[in-house]
Write a structure and sequence with these properties.
By secondary structure, this protein is of the alpha/beta class. Helix content is 49%, strand content 11%.
């Protein structure tokens, strides 16, 4: 998915938000902002939007001196999701169609996205939306997805955000854990899940979890590690979670990919072909 003209205000907003994270020396902050503005001016719109977020992160990283400005929000939403997970497991088990509800909960977890919504996500609003997931219509074909998901022997799960990865387990539980490889980001970027997040919620004790080798808030295959590419090439089915993965993989002609996301951005919704706010299953 290319960056369109309508994306420009959002890209500019990202500069403002990143600049706000650069505490301390004002001179160094101004220096970083100038570099980000120059990157903005020179950004190739043929690239997907997550490439710009990757560029900003690389500019800001030396000024952050090892600090992850999203660490606290990731811990907060991992904790929130872990707290409500037992109740959600009970709801899934009691549902008329447990698989369909697990799919909805897995997708609605994509609302935990500080890169699109805001840095200040509200726990109460997130919890309410997750708990109401059973009432939301799905955009896409769930039966085709059900058939391919349950039949697959090797599934590559391209994870998205912290907190969201907790809810992903509701759907993962429908197949043997040995069939699933989960890929997380190799470096902190926005509130995307890293190996540290996967370890903190116990994901690594159940599933094979790998770093994707990249610091982009998406999956740019040419930027990924040999380990990720090997898992990608061997997979029968690829689950792509969230908007960033959709934006970076939607132009890849691979029929093994199913995109699971909440369409939070009008441009992504338009590209998918649905209304903004919908829960989406899209087969590549």
């Amino acid at each position: 998915m290319k960056t369109c003209i309508d994306c420009i205000p959002c890209l500019g907003k990202q500069i403002v938000e990143v600049a706000g994270m650069l505490d301390g020396d004002e001179t160094k902050r101004d220096e970083a902002v100038k570099k980000m503005m120059a990157a903005f001016a020179g950004f190739d719109l043929q690239n997907p939007p997550p490439v710009f977020a990757q560029i900003l992160a690389r500019i800001a990283r030396p000024y952050l001196e090892g600090r992850d400005p999203f660490h606290d929000i990731k811990v907060r939403f991992n904790t929130l999701a872990m707290h409500i997970l037992p109740d959600l497991r009970r709801k899934v088990a009691a549902a008329p169609d447990p698989f369909a509800l697990a799919v909805r909960l897995c997708i609605v977890g994509n609302v935990i996205d500080s890169g699109v919504v805001t840095i200040q996500l509200e726990e109460e609003a997130v919890t309410r939306e997750i708990m109401n997931a059973s009432q939301e219509d799905l955009f896409g074909e769930i039966e085709s997805f059900r058939k391919k998901f349950l039949a697959a022997d090797r599934i590559l799960w391209l994870a998205d955000n912290a907190g969201e990865i907790v809810l992903d387990q509701l759907l993962m539980s429908f197949v043997d854990p040995g069939k699933i490889t989960i890929a997380v980001r190799s470096f902190p970027i926005l509130n995307d899940a890293t190996m540290r997040d996967a370890e903190e919620i116990g994901l690594t004790s159940v599933y094979r979890v790998i770093d994707n080798g990249s610091d982009a808030p998406g999956t740019i295959l040419e930027d990924c590690s040999p380990e990720l590419l090997e898992s990608y090439n061997q997979a029968d089915l690829i689950i792509s979670k969230g908007q960033g993965n959709y934006e970076t993989l939607s132009s890849v002609p691979d029929k093994r990919i199913f995109f699971l996301l909440k369409a939070k951005c009008p441009i992504v919704a338009r590209d998918v072909g649905c209304e903004i706010g919908r829960l989406v299953i899209k087969h590549q």
